[in-house]
Design goal:
about 230 residues, mainly alpha, Leucine-rich Repeat Variant, 2 domains, globular
């Protein structure tokens, strides 16, 4: 199927009630169909198995770009499932991140695609310094996804994230502070040798005169202190 056919198929499964429910969880309802993630994953698998795309990374990449350009919420998430990280460029990553308008699109793209590219570590650091809410969130979401999925990079690469986690713990915006918290907790849980350092970092953040920083620290310490005893 081409992009047009895939989009037409997803439109048939649109569910306004799901859209309303998603909005209650802070998901942007604009250009949203209400198609669940499992349906998108099934569609991505079926697309990848097609003879035209099974071994054609460039073809999947071009299809992903067409899907992304639709501007439809779920179709953009599907694009991140279809694309091949070996075909993704830094230019594409910077272009897509500027289109983020909802936390779930941000997180899905980071975990499905961006964290598998060779540019992931540098983009994570770069994007956290950006003032745009969802671009900064993407930086911290990417840190969390790297900690979750990358089993080969040395701990030192994740330690480079700690100063940024501390610096931007004062960002009061909900979608940012939750991503900062996620990055801190995920690094600690995925990297056993960094657990103690992450707890120390949370204690440093706790001392900052900021509601956001204190929330991040308290939430992280509650989970990590219990995790440290297991």
């Amino acid at each position: 199927m081409n992009a047009e056919a895939i989009i037409a198929k997803l439109r048939l499964q649109a569910n306004p009630k799901n859209v309303a429910g998603m909005a209650r969880f802070g998901i942007n309802p604009k250009n949203t169909l209400g198609v669940p993630i499992p349906v998108l994953r099934k569609t991505a698998r079926e697309t990848g198995k097609q003879p035209a795309f099974s071994k054609d990374t460039a073809g999947r990449h071009n299809l992903a770009q067409e899907l992304w350009n639709s501007g439809i919420h779920e179709v953009k998430i599907l694009a991140s499932m279809v694309d091949d990280p070996s075909e993704v460029s830094e230019k594409q990553m910077d272009a897509w991140v500027r289109d983020f308008d909802s936390w779930d699109v941000c997180d899905q793209v980071c975990m499905n695609l961006f964290d598998k590219t060779p540019f992931a570590f540098e983009k994570a650091k770069k994007w956290t310094r950006n003032e745009e809410e969802f671009i900064r969130r993407a930086g911290f979401a990417l840190m969390a996804c790297l900690a979750w999925h990358d089993k080969t990079s040395p701990d030192a690469r994740f330690l480079e994230f700690f100063p940024l986690i501390k610096k931007y713990s004062t960002d009061e915006r909900n979608f940012v502070k939750k991503a900062v918290n996620w990055a801190l907790r995920q690094i600690a849980k995925s990297r056993p040798k960094l657990l103690g350092k992450a707890i120390d970092l949370a204690k440093e953040i706790e001392k900052i005169d900021s509601k956001s920083a204190k929330w991040i620290a308290h939430d992280a310490l509650r989970e990590l202190s219990a995790y440290n005893k297991t």
